[in-house]
């Protein structure tokens, strides 16, 4: 009888051990399953957290750049500054000048991003560097490629139907101003459709205008010699003063323009481009802000008739 009791007791103990091992295995499997589900989720949460940190680092860097630009002409801002790039930090660069306006690929024309837009009510104003002569600017205008057929009406390269109509129509008015005086284009010196359609870039050096303080005439070269020398800064403004139509009879919303410098001195872009990158534990966020150089009014969008 004792043998039978001992066997039953042994079987019960063996079953208990088996059941305990089974429960242990089940608990371990459940733990592994939960870890498999929770760890990726926690990583996602941390990723969102670090992504947000990187975003706010970039946003803070943009605000830092805007603060620095607020007391200066944005066109003078070039170069870069950086925080701690090895961990949580930021990098910041500002580009506000170059030998071509706009910088290739950064224009605001919807038809070609190598060109900027000039339209009625949207004049162009460039505050030139110290001692820079406006006659060293080279001006290019063209009809945008409205039909997107690769024939933009670019100077010397467009189809006749995509060139400006009205051979002597006065299209673009210009003015040169300093803190002391302003030279405004005379009626015969406003840039015409023919000049805009021609192949060569335009220059202001041979043009004449009216001096506002004296109402007398002056050439651009004489005015800049007297007013745009060392220690003085001149501002060139270009204004569209006539509606636009192609020779094919198609109305146009604007012209495209590009400026270049005949000398090595960089000229300000219409916008200073601020690029900020924020970093946090392997995550990066980028913010870009374009800061317009100057407030451009329409007060001088007129032509002096003599």
Q: Explain this structure to me?
A:
With 306 residues, the protein is an alpha+beta fold. The chain has a domain at 100-265. Helix content is 27%, strand content 29%. It contains three helices and 17 strands. The protein has helices at 2-70, 193-197, 220-227; strands at residues 80-82, 89-98, 100-101, 116-118, 124-127, 137-142, 170-177, 182-185, 191-192, 208-211, 217-219, 235-240, 244-245, 251-252, 255-261, 267-280, 283-292. Strands 5, 7, 8, 9, 10, 11 and 12 form a seven-stranded antiparallel beta sheet that branches. It has a four-stranded antiparallel beta sheet with strand order 1-2-16-17. Strand 13 (244-245) and strand 14 form a beta hairpin. The radius of gyration is 34 Å and the shape is elongated. Mean pLDDT is 76; it is low at 74-87, 154-161 and 295-306.
Report the total helices: 3
Mean pLDDT: 76
Query: Over the alpha carbons, how many angstroms does the gyration radius reach?
Result: 34 Å
The multimeric state of the shown protein is single chain
Strand content: 25-35%
Low-confidence stretches: 74-87, 154-161, 295-306
- Termini distance? 137 Å
Structural class: alpha+beta
- The tally of beta strands, per DSSP, is 17
Question: What does the main sheet amount to?
Answer: 7 strands, antiparallel
Order of helices and strands: HEEEEEEEEEHEEHEEEEEE
Sum up the overall morphology in one term. elongated
**Share of helix among residues?**
25-40%
């Amino acid at each position: 009888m004792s043998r039978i009791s001992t066997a039953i007791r042994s079987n019960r103990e063996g079953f208990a051990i088996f059941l305990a091992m089974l429960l242990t295995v089940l608990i371990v499997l459940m733990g592994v399953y939960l870890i498999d589900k929770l760890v990726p989720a926690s990583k996602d949460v941390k990723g969102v957290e670090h992504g947000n940190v990187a975003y706010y680092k970039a946003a803070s860097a943009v605000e830092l750049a805007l603060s620095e630009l607020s007391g200066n002409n944005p066109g003078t801002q070039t170069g870069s500054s950086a925080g701690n790039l090895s961990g949580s930090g930021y990098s910041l660069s500002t580009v506000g000048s170059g030998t071509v306006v706009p910088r290739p690929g950064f224009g605001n024309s919807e038809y070609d991003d190598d060109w900027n837009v000039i339209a009625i009510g949207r004049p162009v104003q460039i505050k030139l560097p110290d001692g820079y002569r406006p006659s060293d600017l080279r001006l290019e205008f063209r009809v945008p490629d409205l039909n997107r057929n690769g024939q933009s009406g670019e100077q010397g390269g467009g189809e006749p139907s995509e060139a400006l109509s009205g051979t002597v129509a006065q299209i673009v008015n210009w003015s040169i101003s300093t803190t002391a005086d302003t030279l405004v284009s005379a009626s015969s010196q406003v840039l015409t459709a023919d000049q805009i359609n021609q192949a060569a870039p335009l220059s202001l050096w041979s043009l004449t205008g009216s001096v506002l303080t004296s109402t007398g005439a002056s050439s651009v070269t004489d005015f800049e010699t007297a007013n745009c020398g060392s220690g003085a800064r001149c501002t060139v403004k270009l204004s569209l003063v006539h509606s636009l139509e192609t020779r094919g009879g198609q109305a146009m919303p604007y012209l495209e323009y590009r400026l270049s410098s005949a000398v090595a001195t960089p000229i300000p872009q219409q916008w200073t481009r601020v690029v900020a990158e924020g970093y946090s534990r392997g995550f990066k966020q980028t913010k870009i802000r374009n800061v317009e150089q100057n407030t451009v009014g329409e007060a001088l969008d007129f032509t002096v008739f003599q």
